Structures are given as structure tokens and as C-alpha cells.
């Protein structure tokens, strides 16, 4: 097993040996994933932070398939995924997380994930998820896949007209950022964020962040 600092196309991979990067701050989970993937005959690099993985990306050393935890203390996994995809559209991303909420799920899909695996759901192992992604699949546990389909099976709806700022605020919130973080990232006041959120929610006919993220994605507002 190769270890990174502790410290691609979207078409199927053809090599029998899959090179996988794991971005996970929890050492126990990180090592367990690395061992499981190593036993499956895969080459593994591990990173305890998004920053370390982005450094590897800058050196051209990041694996073409990345398993990433969505909750990284002091860092944004969503920003990291967007950075990886911007630099290498061929890189495959799999979210491996304990969060099953719609805002996390749809935020990860918007950021470019091809798979979404819940840590506590043993119905899909991380090794199987990586194999499926490498073969061109979209690995998700059954419950997650059903929720994605349900969102897109709804009748065609009229797309509400959101302002550019309302869309940007909604995109930040859908990516997992708090109101305070959104204000800082967009350079606006917290009260302005709240005002845009209220207007966006009213136009979308929703009351929560998860409902807003799911409906906006379905309508193509955040795509």
C-alpha cells in the first residue's frame, strides 16, 4: 500500500489494479478503508486532510479515483471536489460519509460525485463501490439511489426565477456551508444572506435547506 502525506475519464478504467486516494480525517476509518481496498488488490494513497490531497493534485500525483469524507474539520470537502474536477475532469469521486441528509447528498452530486456511500450501511462495501465506479457505474446504497430517483420522477414543474445572488447563496448552502460561512465566502452580510434565503425559499415553495437543495437541483437551478 502506498501512503500519501499523512501524512482519468469518466469512462471505465481498464487496468486490473485500481489506484485509489482516500481523504479522511478519522485515522481509524482511514486505515480501515485502506486495508479493505488493499485486500481487494488496489493501490491506495491516504490523506488526512483535503489540503494534503490538493497538494498531491498540484503535483500530478493524486489517484484517478478519490474516496472522500464530506465532513472535514476546518475544510470544505465540496470545495475540494470542485477543485479536483476543475483540474481533472476524468477523476472519479465517491462520497463516503455518515451524513444521509438531502443537502449533503445533492450537494455532493452537484460537486461531481459519481457515488455516495454511507459509512454505517454495510449493504455496499467501499471496495465494491470503488470497483463499480472504476467500471463506469454510479455506486450508491439502495436507499440513496431510491431518493435520487424519486427527486427526478416528480412531474415537470415551472422553474421559478431566482436572481443570480439567490442562486449563489442557495448553491453555498446546498454545498454544506452555514449562513455565516456563506456570508464570508460571498462577501455579503449575514442579514443579506438571510434575506436572499427567505426570497429563494418563497419562490421555490420550500421551508428547509434540504428541500431547497433537492428542488433546485431537480429544476436545474444548481446544475
In short:
The protein has helices at residues 27-39, 50-58, 77-87, 102-111, 126-134, 142-152, 164-174, 179-186, 190-204, 209-218; strands at 19-23, 43-47, 65-68, 92-97, 115-118.
Description:
With 223 residues, the protein is α/β, with parallel strands linked by helices. Helices cover 48% and strands 11% of the residues. The chain has helices spanning 27-39, 50-58, 77-87, 102-111, 126-134, 142-152, 164-174, 179-186, 190-204, 209-218; strands at 19-23, 43-47, 65-68, 92-97, 115-118. It has a 5-stranded parallel β-sheet, with helices on both faces. β4, α4 (102-111) and β5 form a beta-alpha-beta unit. The chain is globular and about 50 Å long. Residues 1-15 have low confidence and may be disordered.
> What structural class do helix, strand and pairing data support?
alpha/beta
Question: Regarding quaternary structure, how should these chains be classified?
Answer: single chain
Distance between the termini: 37 Å
- Order of strands, main sheet, comes to 2-1-3-4-5
Strand content: 5-15%
Regions with little confidence, pLDDT below 50 for 5+ residues: 1-15
Q: Please report the total strand number as a whole number.
A: 5
Helix content: 40-55%
What would you report as the Rg, rounded to the nearest angstrom? 18 Å
The tally of helices reads 10
Largest sheet: 5 strands, parallel
Q: How would the global form be characterised?
A: globular
Arithmetic mean pLDDT: 85
List SSEs in N-to-C order: EHEHEHEHEHHHHHH
